[in-house]
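Target chain:
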Amino acid sequence: MVGQQPQINYTIFSSDRRELTDRFTREESSIAAGNANTWVLQPKPHSHLRVCAYNVHGFIEARDQPLFTQVIRALQADFLAILEFSVFGELSWFTSLYPYRYIPPDTSNFAFFSNYPITNCQIVNLSSQRKMGDVTILTDSGYLNLLVPHLHYQDQASRVQETQQLLRHYRAKPYQPTVVMGDLNQVNAAELAPKQLKIMKQQYKERNNEDYNNQVFELLSQEFTDSFARLGWRAPPSTHWTTTRVDYVLVNKAVEVKSSYVFHGAFSDHLPIMADLSLG
């Protein structure tokens, strides 16, 4: 039986950027002061596999290490994909949190950490100089493939092309349990109420001088389902300081979703997105 959906307390299309930033700062300060309950997630059952994608906006500096370590431990993720990862110098303070890890030696800005053996990892080149991580881990229930895209932040046509490339890459491989998780840089119009959708389309038209379309999600839905939708839960309204949802965990039919979360209070411009899974 699926558990009760966690409370969602962000609002869509808030114009008060200062209020949102202040709230992030208050929650960050609360953790720094030792108020750990602010960021406590539901305990993860041993039989579940928790995956998490977190765009950290390159914020990890020496002064951030103690707080960031607390964040990572609070997530309780078995597999953690970090986007916009840029750490220079000594990494032992962070890499010691996981027995298995892969940090590509190029400028892809990904890093992957796992409690399970990483049996394969590659960085796939997408269009517009964007990249996607392709990682396979060996869990207690078998292999799990994780595709970690970071789509173009501004150009809609590029995002569509990158999504098509993702699907071609996925379909060219032998079928196996697969998760798509990462920063898609796009709002799923199907999750919005009519008034919210109208506002979003107006804003998009004004900013980009083109009509908004939902083709990225129409393409992905051919193979994958959003983790919240799989549970029949209302989608979280925000994973980003702009108070829009641009980060997702999606699964194919071979993966069962037990729960899904947005971790509130993180101090990047994105919030971690995660799901508890079972491979059956």
Summary: The longest helix spans residues 17-32. The two ends are 15 Å apart (CA to CA).
